[in-house]
Amino acid sequence: MDYSHFLSMAEELSLLAVIVIVFLADLFLCGKEEKGLGDVCAADNQCAPACGCNLRTLLPVLLLMVHTVINLVPWCAESCLPSDAFGGMYQHTAMMTIVKSVLNTGVIVVFLMAGSWLNRQENRIKMGEFHTLVLFTLLGMYFMISSGHFIMFFIGLELASIPMTALVAYDKKQYESAEAGAKYILLALFSSALLLYGVSLIYGVTGTLYFDQMADTLQVNLLSILGLVLFISGLGFKISLVPFHLWTADTYQGAPTVVTGYLSVISKGSAAFVLMTVLMKVFGAAAFQEMWSEGFFWIIIASITIANLFAIRQKNLKRFMAFSAISQAGYLVLAIMGSTSQGMTSLVFYLLVYMAANLGAFAVLHVVEQNSGKIGMDDYNGLYRTNPKLAFLMTLCLFSLAGIPPFAGFFSKFFVFMAAFNAGYHLLVFIALVNTVISLYYYLLIVKAMYIKDNDAPIAAFRSDCGTRAALAICMLGVVLLGIAGCFYNYIDRFSYGL
Fold first, then answer.
1. Assigned domain for 2 exists
2. Domains in the chain, number
3. What is the rounded (10 degree) CA torsion for 50, 52, 53, 57?
4. Is residue 192 part of a domain?
5. Mean pLDDT of 46-67
6. Do 262 and 134 form a contact (C-beta atoms < 8 A)?
7. Residue 361 domain-assigned?
């Protein structure tokens, strides 16, 4: 083992280079602005209130796009083959590269959404911190996804969690943001402690922390079962599964809307993929699979049902989207049932569709909040009359989240149901299908508010900034094109590489 093993971590090294460039660029540009040595930043930010586009906001987007293209396009046949480094602590497959590229796309959309907000006077000095923190959380998710050893997995988990706390509490002068940050870090530490304790129990049984070696030596006994339960509990917090969801609504409401969108999709998606990977690699034996499948059976039912019932009662749209995210997490985990390649492909496709629709909805919430300060459902009454384009785009995103054909959300849910049904979970699929009808009702509440309900003082007409328009365009293309791609699922399924 030598330093040449680092060359196998091309995706992580590329992202680290992006982080360094973004950090240095922000350091020098803001240094000039703060010390009065020039008007580079000031002149560059003159258009910020109108369009939110300048060098400091566009540079991370461009770098991340280049990073994604470089790592997504295979430069040689060997890059598509499974490989590992550091004795198996780091692993690479083509499916992992696809998942990382999906996360990259979501971060690009988040950066575009955040442009005008970061260019506000109170946030401009902290702009570089926002980009750097987000990229560090993304790097932590990279380590989690490619881990073949629990030490690397835990390092990635903490690298993804700790900067996220700073993002949640980014508006430090706002009481709700500070409260959300405090709740998130306390519960994140508690869940990490549970997970680490579970891993230590599994280590005590097997004498190793390598996933492959654990699978060969792990026996069904009290310690290993308790370790499995604690591990699922720790990751259940990250995915917002019931009963580990109690932090979600308060944190989503208190965090900045851009951060809420990032937390609801990127963090959740990476944790769901890692959960499926570890369950298949470490706890893939028939005896263990029967146990955790039975547990997830009830967790999925509780997550989807309870979240749907609570979402109906919400008037604050960020809390509404929090319970929507809990429900969507149940569908994500539904793809894990059976531990099949079809389930893996369905999970990744569902994550991509959910990212497009959910970030599109959050982009509308964010731009409306930035221009009017309103976030309540009743505030959206009559939005179609003043901002018809935003109302139309919001409707498309909600229809996709609800699973209405022919939008992409219909196909993503159908594929997840099909994977679970083929694995033998017929009753679970039926219950999830019934809950889909319930979710359609509360998503249509927003559509009813925008198109049917009257409002004596509707949200005034405004023009979105260019970054938000670009983010919305990407999300709408995703909702439409992924819906078309869903018709050719047999071809998509061929990307289901082995783990």
1. no
2. 1
3. 160
4. yes
5. 70
6. yes
7. yes
Range of 379's domain? 11-495
Kindly report which listed range (14-23, 190-199, 281-290, 329-338) carries the lowest average pLDDT score: 281-290
- Identify the sign of the CA torsion 16, 20, 25, 30: positive
Residue 330 located in a structural domain: yes
pLDDT tens for residues 277-323? 888 888 877 777 788 888 889 999 999 999 988 988 888 898 999 99
Q: Give pLDDT tens digits for 336-373.
A: 886 677 778 888 888 889 999 999 999 999 998 888 88
**pLDDT band of 5, cuts 50, 70, 90:** low
Which residues partner with 92 through β-bridges? 83
* CA atoms within 13 Å, Cβ hemisphere of 15: 25
pLDDT at residue number 62? 92
Tokens of 120: 């506000």
**CA nearest neighbour of 134 among 15, 50, 40, 244:** 15
